[in-house]
Design a protein that fits this description.
- By secondary structure, this protein is of the alpha+beta class.
- It has five helices and seven strands, in the order ααββββαβαββα.
- The chain has one domain (27-179): Chitinase A, domain 3, CATH 3.10.50.40.
- The protein has helices at residues 2-13, 27-54, 105-108, 122-128, 175-179, and strands at residues 61-62, 68-73, 87-95, 101-103, 111-114, 136-141, 162-172.
- Strands 1, 2, 3, 4, 5, 6 and 7 form a seven-stranded antiparallel sheet that branches.
- The radius of gyration is 26 Å and the shape is globular.
Length: 180
């Protein structure tokens, strides 16, 4: 009996050895991913530059967040740009850089967006804040500002740069915005 009890104490006293991960992501994997993303961005920026060069009818502006845009309809009488928590009613379409329609504005429909409080793809979130009520502009987005490496699991594939024409129909200022 004492032998069994002694054996159990010794067995319980030993600590199990920690298991090591099966796969370890190395720094070289991360570096390769960063390099791949840099090359992709350079390629997409070159594509954007070529589109701008070929389009002699429009004046393109840099958004400051990585996209470029030109106005289709400008509202020089409006002064207010959407701010945090404002409700913006808008519509937009999405096309490829080859002008193939991905999502028509009618398919997406008119949406109401609470600025910086709802999920939209990054380029659209930034662009809404550049346009005043009654303005329409066409934006060129690198894939990093679109649906990125994942796509939208429907019509937009992996790392697809996008062109969007966005119209701001209405801006409802929130109380904090009105006071500022």
């Amino acid at each position: 009996m004492y032998i069994i009890l002694f054996g159990c104490c010794i067995a319980c006293g030993s600590r199990p050895e920690a298991r090591k991960p099966i796969k370890v992501k190395t720094a070289s994997y991360i570096k390769e991913s960063v390099e791949r993303n840099k090359k992709l961005l350079l390629l997409e920026e070159k594509m954007i530059s070529e589109i701008i060069e070929k389009d002699s009818f429009h004046f393109y502006q840099n958004s400051g967040s990585g996209s470029w845009y030109h106005y289709i309809a400008k509202n020089d009488t409006a002064q207010y740009l959407p701010k945090l928590d404002d409700l913006v009613t808008l519509n937009y379409n999405l096309v490829s850089f080859h002008n193939d329609t991905i999502y028509a504005a009618e398919e997406i429909g008119t949406i109401t967006y609470k600025v910086d409080r709802q999920e939209l793809f990054p380029g659209l979130r930034h662009s809404v804040k550049l346009l005043k009520e009654g303005e329409t502009a066409t934006f060129l987005f690198p894939s990093s500002l679109g649906y990125g490496h994942h796509g939208d699991n429907n019509k937009i594939g992996i790392s697809v740069p996008l062109k969007a024409t966005i119209s701001i129909l209405k801006i409802e200022k929130q109380k904090d915005s009105i006071q500022n």
